[in-house]
Amino acid sequence: NTFRFYSAQLNATAMERLAIEHDLRTALDNGEFRLQYQPIFDVASHALRGSEALLRWQHPSRGLLMPDQFLEVAEQRGLMPAIGAWAIHEACQMARLWTRESGRSLQIAVNVSAQQLAGDGIVEVVDRAIAASGIDPDELVIEMTESMMQSSQARDNLIALRSRGIKIAIDDFGTGFSSLAYLRRFPVDILKIDRSFLSGVPLDERDGAIVRTIIAMARNLGLTVVAEGVETMAQLDFLRELGCDEAQGYLLARPVEAGEFATSFCLVPAVPENIGSP
Asked: Is 103 part of any domain?
């Protein structure tokens, strides 16, 4: 006298999740994770400012997996601190190499998970990564989302990181539910405008008004503004007119492997010629 709800699709999804969880436990030891790097440019001058490190999983049988295919499982199983520590260390090593090769100081931005940011090991992980790589602390940017700003432990960790000179960025700004009061309480240096607000710019007046407001607020607070998801020249021109500081997106450059980032961006003139004139 019971009801059972079952479908082949639900069963396949559950089996897929179990397989991902099983393989995740050995992926780090097997060296299957890798980082791709999306360049970040100065909006006014088009000069390269740095990059965002994006986590990928080169699965031995499933191919290259994007974060949305495995991060949730990794977070639920408590694997993100170890994966995140590897990502920070790897990104810092690349930043040292690129700074040395290019002769320019380039920032590297690394996303951290809620589990990692609220844990008690993040500060030590960053300290070790900076010491091992020899980069300047202000060349590392730690990116978090608005939802992580409610944890008091996360706040303490961010204060400790920023006291070392590390930059703090709020990713996907405008999509969370945090109060603007958090911008006063948390040590923040950079706001990254979520790509969803740029999709309708410059034709959609509401999107334009939101972007304009975020940029104006950030400038008044002395924060750097980075626009994500720039895909058209019209969007880039709109951001330039508003005084947005930096931008990233497919119009400017897609995420690339470390070697391609070095040859295509670090070892070329500071102002790329294929993005159009300011």
From this structure: yes
Residue 276, pLDDT above cutoff 60: no
**107 near 49, Cβ under 8 Å?**
yes
Number of domains composing the chain: 1
The pLDDT assigned to 185 comes to: 78
Between 7-16, 20-29, 205-214, 259-268, the lowest mean confidence (pLDDT) is in 7-16
**All residues at 6 or more sequence positions from 260 whose CB lies less than 8 Å from its CB, including other chains:** none
**Structure token digits, residue 176:** 């969370």
In a domain, 220, yes or no: yes
Is residue 111 over pLDDT 60?
yes
Does residue 277 sit within a domain?
no
In this structure, are strands 224-227 and 107-111 parallel, antiparallel, or unpaired? unpaired
Q: Could you tell me which residues come within 8 angstroms of residue 270 by beta carbon, excluding any fewer than 6 positions away?
A: 47, 48, 104
For residue 276, being part of any structural domain is answered with no
pLDDT, average across residues 70-79: 92
The range of the structural domain enclosing residue 71 comes to 8-266
Output the domain CATH number for residue 144.
Answer: 3.20.20.450
Q: What is the pLDDT at residue 172?
A: 87
Chain mean position to CA 41? 14
More confident residue, 39 or 3: 39
Task: Estimate the share of the chain in helix, then strand, then coil, as percent rounded to the nearest 5.
Answer: 45, 20, 35
**Rounded Cα gap, residues 141 and 162, in angstroms:** 10
CA distances in angstroms from 168 to 56, 226, 257, listed in the order given = 22, 12, 24
CA dihedral 19, 20, 21, 22 (to 10 degrees): 50
| Cβ–Cβ < 8 Å for 256, 36 | yes
Element (H, E) at 206: helix 205-220
How many CB atoms within 10 Å of residue 273?
A: 9
What residue type is assigned to position 4 of the chain?
R
